[in-house]
Amino acid sequence: MKKNRERGQATVEFILTFVFGLSLMLMIFNSAMNYVTGYLVHYATFMAGRVYMTAESYSGVYGAYEQSISRSEERARSAFRQYNLGAFGIQDNEFFVNKSRSGQSSSEYLTVGVYSRFSQKVDVLGKIAGNTELDLVSEAFLGKEPTRAACATRVCFAMTGRESCDPTFDITLFDDGC
Protein backbone atom coordinates (compact mmCIF):
# COMPACT_ATOMS: atom_id res chain seq x y z
CA MET A 1 0.00 0.00 0.00
CA LYS A 2 1.33 3.34 -1.09
CA LYS A 3 1.19 6.21 1.38
CA ASN A 4 0.38 9.69 0.13
CA ARG A 5 3.02 11.89 1.71
CA GLU A 6 1.85 15.03 -0.08
CA ARG A 7 -1.34 15.48 1.89
CA GLY A 8 -1.86 19.19 2.75
CA GLN A 9 0.67 20.33 0.17
CA ALA A 10 -1.91 22.51 -1.61
CA THR A 11 -2.80 24.22 1.68
CA VAL A 12 0.82 25.09 2.41
CA GLU A 13 1.35 26.40 -1.12
CA PHE A 14 -1.86 28.43 -0.92
CA ILE A 15 -0.83 30.05 2.40
CA LEU A 16 2.65 30.93 1.14
CA THR A 17 1.31 32.30 -2.13
CA PHE A 18 -1.47 34.20 -0.36
CA VAL A 19 0.97 35.86 2.07
CA PHE A 20 3.29 36.82 -0.79
CA GLY A 21 0.41 38.12 -2.93
CA LEU A 22 -1.13 40.07 -0.07
CA SER A 23 2.24 41.64 0.78
CA LEU A 24 2.75 42.61 -2.85
CA MET A 25 -0.73 44.17 -3.01
CA LEU A 26 -0.13 46.13 0.19
CA MET A 27 3.19 47.40 -1.16
CA ILE A 28 1.55 48.50 -4.41
CA PHE A 29 -1.26 50.18 -2.45
CA ASN A 30 1.26 51.98 -0.23
CA SER A 31 3.23 53.13 -3.28
CA ALA A 32 0.03 54.48 -4.81
CA MET A 33 -0.75 56.35 -1.58
CA ASN A 34 2.78 57.77 -1.56
CA TYR A 35 2.32 59.01 -5.13
CA VAL A 36 -1.05 60.58 -4.33
CA THR A 37 0.33 62.23 -1.20
CA GLY A 38 3.33 63.50 -3.13
CA TYR A 39 1.16 64.97 -5.87
CA LEU A 40 -1.11 66.65 -3.33
CA VAL A 41 1.82 68.10 -1.38
CA HIS A 42 3.39 69.29 -4.62
CA TYR A 43 0.15 70.99 -5.68
CA ALA A 44 -0.24 72.63 -2.26
CA THR A 45 3.38 73.80 -2.39
CA PHE A 46 2.93 75.17 -5.90
CA MET A 47 -0.23 77.06 -4.93
CA ALA A 48 1.49 78.44 -1.82
CA GLY A 49 4.41 79.47 -4.03
CA ARG A 50 2.06 81.36 -6.31
CA VAL A 51 0.52 83.12 -3.33
CA TYR A 52 3.97 84.01 -2.01
CA MET A 53 5.07 85.30 -5.38
CA THR A 54 2.04 87.52 -6.02
CA ALA A 55 0.95 88.63 -2.54
CA GLU A 56 1.47 92.32 -2.10
CA SER A 57 0.73 94.49 0.89
CA TYR A 58 2.09 97.80 -0.25
CA SER A 59 1.32 100.36 2.41
CA GLY A 60 2.65 103.36 0.53
CA VAL A 61 5.51 103.71 3.02
CA TYR A 62 8.97 103.57 1.56
CA GLY A 63 11.15 100.91 3.13
CA ALA A 64 8.19 98.64 3.96
CA TYR A 65 9.75 95.82 1.94
CA GLU A 66 10.44 93.45 4.87
CA GLN A 67 6.92 93.92 6.21
CA SER A 68 5.47 93.10 2.81
CA ILE A 69 7.65 89.97 2.51
CA SER A 70 6.58 88.70 5.94
CA ARG A 71 2.91 89.22 5.04
CA SER A 72 3.50 87.31 1.80
CA GLU A 73 5.00 84.47 3.84
CA GLU A 74 1.98 84.41 6.18
CA ARG A 75 -0.39 84.25 3.22
CA ALA A 76 1.64 81.43 1.62
CA ARG A 77 1.53 79.41 4.85
CA SER A 78 -2.20 79.96 5.03
CA ALA A 79 -2.60 78.73 1.44
CA PHE A 80 -0.54 75.61 2.26
CA ARG A 81 -2.69 74.88 5.35
CA GLN A 82 -5.91 75.01 3.30
CA TYR A 83 -5.16 71.59 1.81
CA ASN A 84 -5.42 69.80 5.19
CA LEU A 85 -2.33 67.69 4.61
CA GLY A 86 -2.39 66.55 8.24
CA ALA A 87 -4.74 63.78 7.11
CA PHE A 88 -1.74 62.36 5.20
CA GLY A 89 0.72 62.91 8.05
CA ILE A 90 2.21 66.11 6.60
CA GLN A 91 2.60 68.79 9.27
CA ASP A 92 2.57 72.56 8.75
CA ASN A 93 6.07 72.85 10.20
CA GLU A 94 7.41 70.94 7.17
CA PHE A 95 6.73 73.99 4.97
CA PHE A 96 9.57 76.49 4.45
CA VAL A 97 10.04 79.81 2.66
CA ASN A 98 13.22 81.03 0.98
CA LYS A 99 12.70 84.75 1.38
CA SER A 100 13.74 87.33 -1.10
CA ARG A 101 16.11 89.92 0.31
CA SER A 102 17.22 93.21 -1.05
CA GLY A 103 20.66 92.96 -2.63
CA GLN A 104 20.35 89.29 -3.58
CA SER A 105 22.61 87.94 -6.28
CA SER A 106 21.07 86.46 -9.40
CA SER A 107 21.97 82.92 -8.34
CA GLU A 108 20.26 83.38 -4.97
CA TYR A 109 17.22 84.90 -6.63
CA LEU A 110 16.59 81.65 -8.49
CA THR A 111 15.81 79.88 -5.21
CA VAL A 112 13.26 82.40 -3.92
CA GLY A 113 10.00 80.63 -3.21
CA VAL A 114 8.63 77.88 -1.02
CA TYR A 115 9.35 74.22 -0.41
CA SER A 116 8.21 71.42 1.85
CA ARG A 117 10.07 68.39 3.19
CA PHE A 118 8.25 65.29 4.36
CA SER A 119 8.80 61.57 4.90
CA GLN A 120 6.69 58.60 3.84
CA LYS A 121 7.08 54.94 4.79
CA VAL A 122 8.01 52.55 2.01
CA ASP A 123 6.21 49.61 3.62
CA VAL A 124 2.92 49.84 5.55
CA LEU A 125 3.60 46.91 7.82
CA GLY A 126 7.36 47.30 8.01
CA LYS A 127 7.91 43.63 7.15
CA ILE A 128 9.24 43.86 3.59
CA ALA A 129 11.35 47.02 3.52
CA GLY A 130 11.66 47.46 7.27
CA ASN A 131 11.03 50.90 8.67
CA THR A 132 12.66 52.60 5.71
CA GLU A 133 11.28 56.05 4.95
CA LEU A 134 11.43 58.10 1.80
CA ASP A 135 12.62 61.67 2.35
CA LEU A 136 10.71 63.75 -0.17
CA VAL A 137 10.97 67.43 -1.14
CA SER A 138 8.48 69.53 -3.07
CA GLU A 139 9.77 72.85 -4.38
CA ALA A 140 8.09 75.86 -5.94
CA PHE A 141 10.91 78.30 -6.60
CA LEU A 142 8.95 80.67 -8.79
CA GLY A 143 10.82 83.84 -7.85
CA LYS A 144 9.33 86.76 -5.96
CA GLU A 145 8.33 89.78 -7.96
CA PRO A 146 9.63 93.07 -6.63
CA THR A 147 7.11 94.79 -4.40
CA ARG A 148 5.61 98.10 -5.37
CA ALA A 149 7.60 99.71 -2.54
CA ALA A 150 10.83 98.37 -4.08
CA CYS A 151 9.74 99.65 -7.49
CA ALA A 152 8.94 103.07 -6.03
CA THR A 153 12.37 103.16 -4.37
CA ARG A 154 14.12 102.27 -7.62
CA VAL A 155 12.15 104.84 -9.59
CA CYS A 156 12.87 107.43 -6.91
CA PHE A 157 16.58 106.63 -7.14
CA ALA A 158 16.49 106.85 -10.93
CA MET A 159 14.75 110.23 -10.83
CA THR A 160 16.45 111.90 -7.87
CA GLY A 161 19.62 109.91 -7.17
CA ARG A 162 18.55 109.27 -3.54
CA GLU A 163 17.51 105.98 -1.95
CA SER A 164 14.38 107.45 -0.37
CA CYS A 165 12.10 110.17 -1.53
CA ASP A 166 10.07 112.56 0.49
CA PRO A 167 6.54 111.08 0.87
CA THR A 168 5.16 114.32 -0.57
CA PHE A 169 7.23 113.76 -3.72
CA ASP A 170 4.71 112.57 -6.30
CA ILE A 171 6.00 109.49 -8.11
CA THR A 172 3.59 107.94 -10.56
CA LEU A 173 6.08 106.28 -12.86
CA PHE A 174 6.30 102.48 -12.52
CA ASP A 175 7.76 100.33 -15.23
CA ASP A 176 6.92 96.66 -15.70
CA GLY A 177 10.48 95.43 -15.38
CA CYS A 178 11.16 97.17 -12.09
Features:
178 residues, 3 strands, alpha+beta, three-stranded antiparallel sheet, single chain
Description:
The chain is of the alpha+beta class and 178 residues long. The chain has one domain (10-145). The chain contains four helices and three strands. It has helices at residues 9-54, 65-81, 106-109, 148-160; strands at 95-98, 113-121, 133-140. A three-stranded antiparallel sheet has the order 1-2-3. Helix 1 runs antiparallel to helix 2 (65-81). The termini are far apart.
The average pLDDT score comes to: 78
Overall 3D shape:
rod-shaped
User: What's the number of structural domains?
Assistant: 1
The count of helical stretches stands at 4
Q: In angstroms, what is the radius of gyration?
A: 28 Å
* Span of the ends, CA to CA: 99 Å
Which range does the strand content fall in?
5-15%
By secondary-structure content and strand pairing, the structural class works out as: alpha+beta
Total strands: the figure is: 3
